[in-house]
Amino acid sequence: MDHGRKKKLTFITIGFIFLLSGVEYAVILPTIWKYLQTLDAPPYFLGLTLSAFSLSGLLSGPLFGHWSDRTRTTKKIILLSNLFEIVGNFMYFLGFSRWLLLSSRLVAGIGTGAGSSIFGLLTRSTRPQDRSTVFAAVMVCRQVGLLIGPAFNIFLRLCDFHLGPFVVNTYTAPGLFMCLLWILLQLAVLFLYWDLPPLEKGKDAAKAPHSVAENEEAMEEEEGEDNDEGKPLMRSQELAGSYGSVLASDSHRNRSPSTSDPSANANPVSPSPEAAASREAWRPFKSISLSREFLREEVVVLLAAQFITLFNQTALETMVTPLTQKYFNYGELENSLMYCLCGVEVIAGFLFVRWLSRRVAERVILAVGLGICNISCVWCLIFVAKPLGGFPWQLTEFIVGVFLQVLGLPFVAVAQISLFSKVTSEETQGFSQGVRRSVGGLATILGPLWAGGLTSNLYIMIGVMMALLVLLTVMLAFSYKRLVEPSGEEEAESRVSC
Prior knowledge:
mainly alpha, Growth Hormone, Chain: A, 2 domains, two-stranded antiparallel ribbon, 2 strands, 78% helix, disordered C terminus
């Protein structure tokens, strides 16, 4: 099978992975509280169970990402993470006690950690100018899952039968259903997913060297060709050395002619395959200082954007249902319809950003999205915290606030992910994406906790959200010039100066 077909099938499989993650969220969330009530769980158990899923994903993301950086493979990681999803959802289906239900979400959450490895793969196998488009497409897949998930509940809620000793009903059926879907996806990963080689810079397809020995051979071949083509590779090696890599520096010195040892050029010593593999496996973290990588100005801004936007989003999601019940007397049907319409808006937003990213720089998209989020928060602070007028006006004020909040999310989400992949080292993309997703996971834990305790005092709740957005806006303004993909020389200088 040719490389193009393998790449296409791999990307389609990745799309289904994110699709199922959205379906799982939308299928389980509507019934989990009543499920816990049938198991005599106290009210606080709902927060624990939902947070357990985010917590385990927060911890597993960097680990899976580091694993993919060391091995340059993702297929085994995805197969392992899918097993956690299968086991976790089967435990949810069994549901003998509230503690088993809590454990089931903890186990299933580990499976979400593979997302960091997948984003690392996408970063290494796509051109920088195409990255926003690819990331937007992947995120659309999850939103489609969130949109179609409630449709599955239409027939899952009708389940009422026994499967051997197990009861399949409205509450246990989602776990069994997702378990079967993840098993099917496991088969798709086995037969339709390949570990794609990384792209060489300046080329559309890549056959990048995977070991130190191959890297040295590639360098020797390039040195004999045109000097303009050789410079980027030399800078790549110098950049690795500038991160503090003793191995990279030694390797670079070994390639230089030695006047004191004439035999050095005549009989170059190549490392053994075992030594080369070992050096390659440890290279990412020997060639990069984590403090220098993640404490740089532009990286801090993008991580702050990840945290603040997700914190505000999950806080808003937590606030919406109590508000619609209080002011509009909405039930499950009305809320489901509202979430469905929001899902349509988000998908349309991602598709628009996917088109826009080919014409506008990511930092411009990020600034536009952040501006929309600021307008939305101001609107909510004025009109939603204490609605004005009669029922029609209150409903209009609420709809506008939610519409603006949802509208800004695709702009910020796609732009910050794409920029993050460009301002962090490609050698450690899996780990870096794991850190980014962990920051987001922390936000999804703290956001609901913050909003849940302040639904009766919306001025404080929305005021803090507004303050965080203002802080992020100021950070973006001061760091706007740095939010671009650095050239080889700029990257080396910035990292050395840290």
